[in-house]
Amino acid sequence: MHLLVTLRILGLLLVIYSVTYIPPMIVSLIYTDGALQPLFDSFAVTLIGGLIIWLPVKNYKKELRLRDGFFIVALFWVTLSIIGAIPFILSPQLHISFAGALFETTSGLTTTGATVLSGLDGLPQSILYYRQQLQWLGGMGIIVLAVAILPMLGIGGMQMYRAETPGPVKDSKLTPRITETAKALWYIYISLTVACASGYYLSGMNLFDAIGHSFSTISTGGFSTHDASLAYFGDNPMLALVGILFMFLGGANFALHFLVWRHRSIKSYFRDSEFKTYLAIIIIAGLITSVYLYLHKIINSPLSALLHGFFQTISVATSTGLTTQNYAGWPAFVTVLILFTGFIGSSAGSTGGGMKSIRFLLLLKQGYRELLRVIHPNAVIAIKLNGKPVPERVMESVWGFLATFVACFALIMLALMLTGLDQVTAFAATAFTINNTGVGLGTVSSNYAEISDIAKLICAFSMLLGRLEVFTILVLLTPAFWRR
């Protein structure tokens, strides 16, 4: 482990991240909301802390190895979750514990959208903007942003990129150089954000809310500037349609967005097996949800049932968590169905969470192959994706991920029950944090403030575990990782 080069990169990343406090400070000045001091103090602590770490080792340069990339990614996300909690702790309007502030920051950065805050409508606009910005930065991954910048400072980033990018296949690049790849992803990300904000604004939101909700929609984060989420704006079909479109795009593979943009054709979407699976899951689950809501008179209008059914299905499937209705009050069949879509999740290479549609597809293909082998025991049957055989090593990694995911889920759920949570609440809290979905059931149906500080810390760990695809965190706990 190259400790000195790790500290050098961590210090630089913190210095770069300190710049992100400037926009919320500007918002505080515009609205004169009295929250400038906590934000400035946070900026100063992050900047000075980064310089203190970086300056002693600024001249130390060495080639990064893959294990260094994993360590830096995990260290930076943990450090940033702690540093990012400072504005919440210092803000006099919040009266929040360290565990609560850490939970809120981790939820934002991992685009989970779970919150311990209430009374959002009365909070300073700059704090609300800061929450929205957290998830927007976390959506594409702060490390990917840094990868686009650090090569200019003489630091390579491929190892970090591979450790942070979600999905089972991590070696593909959109462009020959990793810097250009990261830039391409961010250009697409920013363009979609601007388009989403414009859609919300034209549909009736004010500029502040439109920008804030575009951050949470494209990042599939789910934070809102209002306690009632999008329901605050009433039964506005246009807002819901904008949300549906851009949550869906946020949950799709950004490499596909890049190919569509480069080729000026949407055919790239429909040539991709994972995208077709992702689309099929949402259509099937959305239709079942909508029909059930209408037939059981939960929503009386068929068009309204379709709108809200698909909105909530896409919101959970993409791990966004925005709501237009009281989702927790719907019948158990619907909530559990939508919960299962959250387990499957969105596409690899997207801002969404869950196990990812590509893993679900590969598991289905593996199951079908085993059925065929029962009939033809000696047959050699290849699993194909996009017309190409999938290496057995990839299938092994998918099965390994599933086994590890289930084991982590069980342990986290038991740990939450040990803190005093009932079975439903513990299951929901685990499911919605490890899948980075946010919305919950039981005691945490709308807010996580009532659970204990220990439970909040467990949930924060669960969010990081899910956001970094389990292995990035767990690999650090293995003795083999630390051997020379």
Can you offer a commentary on this structure?
The protein is mainly α. The chain has 23 helices and two strands. Strands 1-2 form a two-stranded antiparallel ribbon. Strand 1 (384-385) and strand 2 form a beta hairpin. The radius of gyration is 22 Å and the shape is globular. The termini are close together. Mean pLDDT is 87; it is low at 146-161.
Summary?
The protein is mainly alpha-helical and 484 residues long.
Topology, please?
Blueprint: H1 3-18, H2 22-31, H3 36-54, H4 66-83, H5 86-90, H6 98-109, H7 125-140, H8 142-149, H9 158-164, H10 178-202, H11 207-218, H12 237-250, H13 254-263, H14 267-270, H15 273-295, H16 302-317, H17 332-344, H18 357-375, E1 384-385, E2 388-389, H19 392-418, H20 423-434, H21 453-467, H22 471-474, H23 479-482
Antiparallel strand pairs: 1-2
Helix pairs in contact: 1-3, 1-4, 2-3, 2-7, 4-6, 4-9, 6-7, 6-21, 7-8, 7-11, 8-10, 10-11, 10-12, 10-13, 12-16, 15-16, 15-17, 16-17, 19-20, 20-21
**Class inferred from helices and paired strands:** mainly alpha
The amount of helix comes to 55-70%
Q: How do the helices and strands follow one another from N- to C-terminus?
A: HHHHHHHHHHHHHHHHHHEEHHHHH
Which shape, going by the Cα principal axes? globular
Output the strand order for the largest sheet.
Answer: 1-2
Count of distinct strands: 2
How would a crystallographer describe the biggest sheet? 2 strands, antiparallel
Uncertain ranges: 146-161
Number of H/I helices: 23
Cα(first) to Cα(last) distance is 8 Å
Average pLDDT reading: 87
Radius of gyration: 22 Å
Tell me the β content: under 5%
